[in-house]
Structure formats: structure tokens, C-alpha cells
């Protein structure tokens, strides 16, 4: 079992053996060196997007899926367990487990990105609710027809709402709204 420290750009900064049943220190050292030479941008990207993790082996031909971390990895200290790697050499099967520890600045960045995504979803949900309300009653109030025609342009109001984070009552007034 290995622990690797991954920098913000996905480079393995440090690889250390946590636990080993292999009696040969040279093989373990070789495995540490191979892990240290890896690039794991998928680990960092997965924390940002909660998508699949893809690891880079030493050679481009050896690239293979390595795991799917939980979205909570950032909140749980940014340790991402990758699925085991199976090596077969000279008739011996070696199972290698790797835990990637991501740099502190990435954890903070991921936390901020998650919070921003939550805010965006809340705004989009509010805007979608107001869009439905607008589409259910499209006539523009008499007091607003001179500026914005006889019917509300609900889709334009929806787009503006998503950009600004609030429903544009001046353009698509909700029931009961009157300007001051």
C-alpha cells in the first residue's frame, strides 16, 4: 500500500510505502520510483468535477482508469483512494493500493468551487421557478407595456435572472409586483 502526495497540477510529489508484504526492498523502491514519476491530473480534476479519475502511467500507452473518488473527498482531507493496480511479473501477482493526498491549496479551491456550484444551482432553481410562473401568465401589466410590449419575454428574463441572480421584475413583473 502506497501513499502519494499530489500537487495542484497533478504531479506526484512524493511516494512512500505505507505497508508491504513484499520482502524485497529493491522491488518496493522501484515501485516508489515508478509512482513518483507519475502524473495524476485526474485526481485533482476529479475533486474539482466529481468525475472519474484517470491516471497516467510512466508511458502514455499504459494509461488506464484508476478509480472514482467520492465528491466528499475534498471535505475529508482530500485523500483519494484509487482502485487497486494488479501487476504480474514472473508468475507473481502483486496487488498495489494507492492513496493520493492532494495539496492543501487544491482542497481549499475545491471547497470554494463546491460552494459556488451550490449557489449557482440555488439561483438556477429559483430562476426556473420564476420562469414557469412567467410562462403561465405572459400578459404584461398595463403600466409596463410602453417599455416592454404587451407580453413578457420570459426566456430573456430567465437568462438575465441566471446572470444576475435575481428575477428582473422591472421587465417581467411577478404577480402583485409594482415598482416604487
From TrEMBL:
Name of this chain's protein: Uncharacterized protein
Top-rank taxon, per record: Bacteria
